[in-house]
Amino acid sequence: MTNYASDAVPGWAAQAWVIWPVFAVLVVVSIGLLLWSRQLDAAPRPPARLAPVSRLTRGQQASLRPPHVQRVRGREGELAVLAGMLRRPQGRFAVLCAVGGMGKTTVAAQLATQAEAAGWRVFWVRWRDGAELAQQMVQAALACGLPEAELEAARAGQASLPDVVWRQLGRVRRWLLVVDNADEPHEIGPAGEPVADYRGWIRPHGRGLLVVTSRDGTEQTWGPCAQLLPLEPLPVRPAGQVLLDAAPVAGTAEQARELAARLGGLPLALHAAGTYLAGPTSRYRTFAAYRQALEQELRFLLGAAHPNASHPQVARAVVRHTWEVSLDQLAGEGNALARPLLRLLALLAQAPVPLSLITPDLLSLVTGHDVTAAALEAAFAGLHRYGLLGLPHSPGSTGPASGSSEGAQVVLHPLIREINAVALTAETSDLAVWHRALAERLTTAVHEANQRGRAGWPAAVLLAPHLPLLLDHADPRTATHHRTTLNTLAQVLQKAGAFDAARLLHERVLEVETRILGPEHPDTLTSRNNLGNALFGMGEPAEAIRLLRQTLEDRARILGPVHPDTLTSRNDLACALDGTGEHAEAVGLLRQTLNDRTRVLGPEHPHTLASRDSLGLALDGMGEHAQAVRIHRSTLEDRIRVLGPEHHLTLLSRHNLASALTRAGQQTEAIQLLRQALNDHARILGDEHPHTLASRDSLGLALDGMGEHAQAVRMHRQTLEDRTRILSPEHPDTLASRHNLALALTSAGEQAEAIDLLRRTLDDRVRILGDEHTHTLSTRNALETALAMSTQRPQTRWWHWLRRRNVAAGGGPPRYRRGGLPDHATNESGSGAGWVWRGQGWR
Fold first, then answer.
1. Which of 179, 264, 500, 657 has the fewest CB neighbours in a 10 Å radius?
2. Low-confidence winner among 91-105, 489-503, 704-718, 787-801 (lowest mean pLDDT)
3. What angle do CA 758, 764, 770 make, to 5 degrees?
4. Which of 526, 579, 527, 569 is nearest to 549 (CA)?
5. Beta carbons of 251 and 292 less than 8 angstroms apart
6. What pLDDT is attached to residue 150?
7. Secondary structure of 645-668 in HEC code, one letter for each residue
8. Cβ-count burial of 813 within 10 angstroms (0-12 exposed, 13-18 middle, 19+ buried)?
9. Strand, coil or helix: 248
10. 130 CB contacts (<8 Å, ≥6 apart)?
């Protein structure tokens, strides 16, 4: 030790035999105090000793014992979080929140079982009203050693009862208190104060853990000290195991998972189905039979009304009624629109619903009452607060309007949607009013999306799944109008590059028209041609060519060989053939179509220009590069004059001219045009539009041909990543990008990665396109070249020969083709159309 006043060591401290015994005594005392402190924490003083809960249960007071539950499946993550909070609450409490039927009480009961097994004292409080909650909280505090004197002081009005209770809960450790079914937090008290102020019965101040289960899952309700644990539907595997636990002889694990997926992983529905299947008198005794029966008998199986549904506890345990509890609570809060809004949403498809689709006028039509925008927003917010609406792509968001107002959307759990549709049928005598109002609004929304151009594309994609509803409940007087609406939306989707969504609409329209109008009606033939073009855009050329060839034959026979619709079919078939490498047949069809269109429509009609552009592409594919350059250059000039410099067809011509120039060896002009095309496409169509991706792919090929291998590799790698994400890993355009990346890597000397990519691409092209397809052969040649180059020195003459051989096999930028809706479906300016990228040349 040091004397800091004099910096001199005391004489007694200089003796080692004095210092070390003193030091040892201090160490022993410190250890003893530490152990004593832990013992005090583990075993509180006698005044705070926990008494058995059973002694405190008297008269009509509810038991504080937790309910018994079997093993909980699929909630291991939530239970792990709760277990960690139980050990160290750190000034927090937990809120298990979800829509009714998600198993909040079950998870809390499982935690209670684990806590009791570990030696914690557990208090289970069932929320019914404020008076009963106060009684049960006092019981818990007494069990934690609350002195009678403090309780009497609160009864005499000398202290706040919640303060007294929570003061005691702050003195002791190792307790778990669950407040179950706290679905109306505003009723918990004190009156007029929000729960988030922590002045009432819900507080984060104890030394144990408070867990609340509630349908209300908003942070605004519970405050910053709440650890919100929203429960989602169970994953398929544990959900299937729940069914197997309840009905072990009802089928295989795979069949159980299929039924669990059909039930959307909702624990209450799983429990109801399992209980039904295990019943000795049930009509359906297997998972497969029950799943099949749901398609026709859902309203009798899960949608059946319970005679005692007016009792809250019964309603919570029945699938048909559990969500009505939340709707009743919202109605009690003055939110009368929540129920009809949920019913209306249930009539739409099982897909995200754009908020812009649901307007006050729409809800006014179905309810017969005036609806304001503020009331509609409150209804959306209330449904979301109680978990009846979800938000796609934004987990954990606190309100329904996630992101911009343009893209805000909501989703319904599949069973919530189906059961509410059943409820609407039971409540409403005339559903036609609802269907007509929804049909009018959907038609208007499609018109709005079409009028907005590119800005309307995101809305169009969201509307697509809901449009077939127009055909399900079509009035014969409006059927043609509704089919036109679907075709209009499909055109918008194809402009946006959303070929999958467009295909679904075309398939539905074709099915309806074939059934109602007949397979040879002109409208049916138009729909078949539309579907063929959509299939080609999706990367299914074989089926596309089959449909387009059949349609051409039927139109030529029924309408005549030079009818505008027949010319459209011939042009689209030629483009599809050219896109799959059948250049010779394509050139013959396109020359004939160009001559007929020039004579019938005029030399500068947009459809005539489209045929001329397609002919240039086919000639380029046959190796007639100089002729292709002349055709594309004249087409570009005419389109700039007729359509304008920034029309999407003008951009198409600029891109195709650049591709032909590249193959003709005029690299400098080609790269300049390709850079301009890429910038224009990104600015006008967006960075992720298929046309923009193809422009980037073309520029990468041209740069690779100019020796800019590193830059080409970066472009192709980015394009491959984007196409894999946007189109699919096996889309022909994605395979083309993988092939092109491999070529650039080969040029850059990265032979190992290039060979790996080419092998994968060859396997996929053999499986998808066939062993003798031109693109398959091109990939096989490129792989042979890469393997040979990997054994040669790059400076040798052999390397240059292989490089020229690879380019001759089809290198060069990709080209556009026209392949959207038929020409007659566009307006006179030719601005309709659905343009897709043609595959030939994407080696």
1. 500
2. 787-801
3. 110
4. 569
5. no
6. 87
7. CCCHHHHHHHHHHHHHHHHCCCHH
8. buried
9. coil
10. 187, 188, 189
| pLDDT tens string 740-777 | 999 999 888 888 898 999 999 999 888 887 887 778 88
Residue 705's nearest CA partner among 692, 719, 720, 715 is 715
Q: What are the Cα distances from residue 452, in Å, to 456, 457, 466, 672? A: 5, 8, 19, 31
- State the Cα–Cα distance between residues 189 and 199, nearest whole angstrom: 8
641 phi and psi, to 5 degrees? -75, -40
| Euclidean distance between CA atoms 294 and 302, whole angstroms | 8
Residue 49, number of CB atoms within 10 A of its CB: 12
CA distance 614 to 285: 60
Mean pLDDT score across all residues of the chain: 83
Q: Let me know: does 720 contact 736? Beta carbons within 8 Å.
A: no
Return the amino acid letter for 18: V
As a whole number of angstroms, the distance between CA 556 and CA 113 comes to 76
H-assigned helices in 215-318: 219-222, 236-246, 253-262, 267-278, 287-301, 312-316
From 235, 183, 185, 189, select the one nearest 388 (Cα to Cα): 183
At 523, the amino acid letter reads D
> What is the C-alpha separation between 675 and 699, in angstroms, rounded?
7
Count of CB atoms within 10 A of residue 562's CB?
Answer: 15
**Full DSSP string of 77-146:** HHHHHHHHHHH--TT-EEEEE-STTS-HHHHHHHHHHHHHHTT-EEEEEE-S-HHHHHHHHHHHHHHTT-
Task: Enter the DSSP assignment of 309.
Answer: T
Distance CA 669, CA 59 (A): 94
Mean pLDDT of 285-306: 90
CA distance 771 to 419: 50
Q: What b/e readout covers 782-803, taking b as 16+ CB neighbours within 10 angstroms? A: bbebbeebeeeeeeeeeeeebb
Q: List Cβ neighbours of 434 (8 Å cut-off, separation of 6 or more).
A: 343, 344, 347, 366, 424, 428
Looking at residues 600-611, what average pLDDT do you find?
93
pLDDT score recorded for residue 156 = 81
Give which of 508, 519, 577 is closest to 819, Cα–Cα: 577
Higher pLDDT, 43 or 415: 415
> Which pLDDT score is estimated for 811?
40
Residue from 210, 199, 89, 41 nearest 140 by CA: 210
For residue 22, the model assigns a pLDDT of: 63
Distance between CA 799 and CA 642 in Å, rounded? 48
In DSSP notation, 523-543 reads HHHHHHHHHHHHHHHHT-HHH
- Name the one residue in this structure whose structure tokens are 């830059």: 711
**Which string of DSSP letters, residue by residue, matches 789-821?**
HTTS-TTSHHHHHHHHHHHHTT-S--EEEE-SS
Cα–Cα dist 734/726, whole Å = 9
- Residue 359 pLDDT more than 50? yes
Low-confidence winner among 190-199, 442-451, 589-598 (lowest mean pLDDT): 190-199
β-strand pairing of 353-354 with 121-126: unpaired
CB 375 within 8 A of CB 453: no
The Cα diameter of the chain in Å comes to 124
CB burial of residue 683 (10 Å; 0-12, 13-18, 19+): exposed
Residue 500 predicted with pLDDT over 60: yes
Q: Which residue has the tokens 């404020």?
A: 130
Contact predicate 725/737, CB 8 Å: no
Q: Are 839 and 536 contacting, i.e. CB atoms less than 8 angstroms apart? A: no
Top pLDDT among 773 and 385 is at 385
